[in-house]
Amino acid sequence: MAAVNPDLQSERDGATFDTNKLTFLLDGGEGMTERRREVEAEALADPEVTGGPHYHFMSRPEQYSDAVRKAVHYMKQAKTGKFDNPADAHWYRNTLWPNEMAPIGLHTTMFLPTLENNSSPEQKEKWAPLAKDFKIIGTYSQTEMGHGTNLKALETTATYEPELEQFILHSPTLSSIKWWPGGLGKTSNFAVVMASMIIKGKNYGMHPFIVQLRSLEDHTVITGIEVGDIGPKFGFNTIDNGYLKFDHVRIPRENLLMKNAVVEPDGTYVRIAKNEKAAYSTMIFVRAMIVLEVATRGLAQACTIAVRYSCVRRQSELVPGGPEPKVLDFQTQQYKLLPVLASCYAYWFSGLFIRMTYFQINYEIQQGNIDLLPELHAVSSGLKAFTSYGSMAGIEQCRLACGGHGFSQASGLPKIYTTMTAGCTYEGENSVLYLQMARYLMKSFLQAEKGETTTNSVAYLSKKNLDKCVLGATLSPDTIIAAYEHRAARLVRKAGLRVNALEAAGKPYHEAWNLTSVQFTKAAEAHCHYFVVLKFADTLEEMEDEAEIHNVLLQLFQLYACYGITNYAADFTEDGFMSQEQLDMVRLRVLDLMADIRPNAVALVDSFDYPDHILGSVLGRYDGNVYENLYKWAKDSPLNKTEVHDSYYKYLQPMITGKSNL
Ligand SMILES: CCCCCCCC(=O)SCCNC(=O)CCNC(=O)[C@H](O)C(C)(C)COP(=O)(O)OP(=O)(O)OC[C@H]1O[C@@H](n2cnc3c(N)ncnc32)[C@H](O)[C@@H]1OP(=O)(O)O
Ligand SMILES: Cc1cc2nc3c(=O)[nH]c(=O)nc-3n(C[C@H](O)[C@H](O)[C@H](O)COP(=O)(O)OP(=O)(O)OC[C@H]3O[C@@H](n4cnc5c(N)ncnc54)[C@H](O)[C@@H]3O)c2cc1C
């Protein structure tokens, strides 16, 4: 291994805490870190994983094809039972497809979970082993060209025919063509298709059906189905997001996944699930996972790249006539990066929380107790929106902080950005999800107005909040939380009262709601902000015996919270809750905290523990040897394979010399 750039080494030497110990905390324990590192090391030693063609120098069809090669490699290993532990499989996939979507990504994240959570026991016994063993490869096909958000308006129909005990799948209009499902275009041979179920002329709404799309022998398309790739996108080059059109395709009655609703042979519809949104369960699962696995990890990688590079990059002067400083020593550079780094830690702890909460509540739901479903739906929707937007903006900030080299694919940042930013749209567009959370906030507000106690994430709404902010220079977590509680409670209340007032003035509820929806998305955002601050504070409180790590995390917590206050100053001050003096103090504390955190910046990103292969960045290399590798990167560019490019002979030569050697 090449020697580490002394400018990075000096950062590591000056850190005040043991990065390994912080990595253990982020991974959920020392054992988890060790296992992750083992899985990654094994993958990194495998030429099938690291030895393929250069991602950035391939065309899109080549990128897709190479991703399929990797998928086959993965599936062969999975079939040996090597990845029976889901965490192992996850770490392996992250190394195999760094910031890329696998063509079988939907198979593992949505197809299999839907089979497992929406099938009757007999169906599960039939389909899940086939999917687990990759005997069938599936996707989750819900969105249509005309509708992704409004699931009640999906047009694909599944009409039941009792005589033959079959459903007939049909795409009646152009806009009903399924559009977007990952892995649908070329890879999958099966899909869970969400279609409106019609029995004897009555529409029972969206239900999941398992449908074969292609032959298991030669991958040719089943009669009556038209399927293909939707073409190049903003990112996601390695996955074949697809379209799917049905022309009266018949499937057996048993292909309706019947955990939540059964259709008897004679067409009698029997609902089993207590909640009519049971068919939406896979979406809750994925939203809960996006917080940590998509939003936070993308941001953590971008921070790693930008912070390391900012300690290697020297530019301009700090001391007149003195040597060029590391750019991270400029306060403005710290202001670009350190609040983003603080938010990354904040999101991480919320991500761990929502992942754990999902499994706990889902267990209850599987036992038949659906009391906490609205809370789970609201929190997973809100956090998905809040963290994916924050990460998207944070990654772009990291790119800007890398100057010109940040714009090169060599930085790794464009790939991270384009992959991550899709998370603001898929699995529920962010504004739409904030509005789902807002419904929950509105209901909770009405409960609180009636003097009822609100619980869980909205417990603060029925509490007596402080009228005056007591935040002082010590920035204690309690006073910070109280300030965020106050802001969220006030914004929720303001929006709720406006809906009530508009209704009282004669507007129908839906109109009053629409006229308040901007306020409500801001209230939902404020609620999520409060929640993330709270979960960060909880993590600090639960930490044991690690004074050095506690100190630096406390600084990050304070920076995250103070930066949030300065960014949303009006929310905290306009009702007189926070004084101008307090706001000024908070603004200055942001600057002081950045100076406190600066010596640990590299150690804080090292703690995310990303191997260079996953970062895929010349700028963010662990060894900091940026310039020699940028030069190498440029020399490898396909345009440099010949001294004179073909286009010269084709276009330039005739213009310049009047002749062509072609
Ligand atoms: C790495 C990962 C890769 C992933 C790749 C991406 C894969 C995908 O994108 S798959 C497609 C995902 N698609 C979506 O997310 C679609 C988004 N749209 C929706 O979820 C819904 O249509 C939604 C929630 C916006 C509105 O649903 P709709 O049926 O109109 O419900 P609506 O009338 O607003 O609400 C009715 C009630 O249902 C509740 N509800 C809505 N969704 C849920 C849910 N998932 N669970 C429980 N309750 C729910 C609401 O809270 C509301 O309750 P209440 O009346 O008590 O307030
Ligand atoms: C990369 C990627 C991968 C995907 N993978 C899959 C997949 O595997 N399977 C699958 O089924 N789907 C998939 N999708 C589709 C995805 O889930 C939808 O695109 C997403 O849910 C948003 O729906 P839409 O496209 O209909 O957006 P629209 O709803 O058309 O959004 C357009 C605008 O309208 C606004 N809007 C819509 N409704 C409301 C409302 N009620 N109130 C206020 N504003 C509103 C939105 O906020 C947005 O600003 C994928 C999409 C992408 C980009």
TrEMBL record:
Q: In which pathway does it act?
A: Lipid metabolism; peroxisomal fatty acid beta-oxidation
Q: Which domain of life is it from?
A: Eukaryota
Q: Name one GO molecular function term.
A: ATP binding
Locate the active site.
Answer: E427 (proton acceptor)
Acyl-CoA oxidase C-alpha1 domain ranges (all copies)? 280-442
UniProt family annotation: Belongs to the acyl-CoA oxidase family.
Q: What is this protein's record name?
A: Acyl-coenzyme A oxidase
State the taxonomy lineage: Eukaryota, Metazoa, Spiralia, Lophotrochozoa, Annelida
